[in-house]
């Protein structure tokens, strides 16, 4: 691993003993970050955006997500969990919203906060940002970390169009840290704030935030892991219903298309796109100025939005149905957001402009790079152009590039080998 690869954190790991070299992961990676060599997959750290496609595609559990172990919370005197709205769609309907929330306290947390608390605040912030930046059209949402990294890797010209404010759970974290320290008289280093998240991209964002001036959270746990651990407390809590505040009207953030619908109004036109392949198609069209009629585009790498994240346990359509039921049956609750409003006006939620992630550099010397490009084109004329991935590279062009970079051989092409063997016969 070179120095450039070591600078990136990823919440995905490969278990070599489980890998069969089937190339299923190679074919679904949107940034061509995976190769198979000697029947084992490996990930190019500079290209990976933690979308989780490979985790879902691998039938042999050779590529697995990773999040922090729960016992790290005990390093802190006061522990807070901030829950993604997608969490509440994971439980069967006999388990109530308050019970699912209160169960997290049983794991050792002193306080539980919901992303849902600031949904309405975020809608106002997004609308104001759009109106203040009329020269940028369309503005692209930055709440999906995988999409932000995708733009850095493949669509760097669109980086200025990103919504340059913190994501909802980070905004809530920033507010909670100030409030809890003030209300409880504890030191900053004694307060641990942890996210409970639906996808690996959010785990990566906690450990290596893009555009943030500092780390806001102290760790991230997968919804699936937390779900498994709270199950043992559910029955007792159902028998003794907890008195705990919930915010059902804010759960809309987890649902596909709803953020765009809420932002849409008389002077703002929005579009919602889910699924990494759809997102890439839309980003290509934005680059070509085919979608300038939109003011704001919500982009999420997971199909069906956050309920489709690979760290969830429930089918995304079932989870969506359950969350919609909670929203429909829930009551609106007045929320005092003066503290958050104050931080917003002070610019505390601004993020630094993002830089492109350079991955296609053939060589630092321009003359050498040009020579390598010519060699790539020469190899391309030899390769069959089928993009079958049987060689372990995602496309014939990627194989040609790997050959020139010394990472593969022309003999890795199975199609050419078969042709040559037939000619020899």
**Main sheet strand line-up:** 6-5-8-9
The helix-and-strand class reads alpha/beta
Largest sheet features: 4 strands, parallel
Outline: globular
Which regions are unreliable across 5 or more consecutive residues at pLDDT < 50? none
Q: What's the mean pLDDT score?
A: 90
- Calculate the terminal CA-CA distance, rounded to whole Å: 42 Å
Counting H and I runs of at least 4 residues, what is the number of helices?
16
In percent, how much strand structure appears in the residues?
5-15%
Taken in chain order, the helices and strands follow as: HEHEEHEEHEHEHHEHEHHEHEHHHHH
Number of distinct beta strands: 11
Domain count: 3
What is the subunit arrangement here?
Answer: single chain
Helix content: 25-40%
Your description of this structure?
By secondary structure, this protein is of the alpha/beta class. The chain has 3 domains: 1-66, Alpha-Beta Plaits, CATH 3.30.70.20; 70-345, no CATH class; 363-425, 3-methyladenine DNA Glycosylase II, Chain A, domain 3, CATH 1.10.15.40. The chain is 39% helix and 11% strand. It contains 16 helices and 11 strands. It has a 4-stranded parallel beta sheet with strand order 6-5-8-9, sandwiched between helices. Strands 7-11-10 form a 3-stranded parallel beta sheet. It has a two-stranded antiparallel ribbon with strand order 1-4. α4 (97-105) links the parallel β5 (78-83) and β6. The mean pLDDT is 90.
Question: Notable features of this structure?
Answer:
four-stranded parallel sheet, 11 strands, 425 residues, 3-methyladenine DNA Glycosylase II, Chain A, domain 3, Alpha-Beta Plaits, alpha/beta
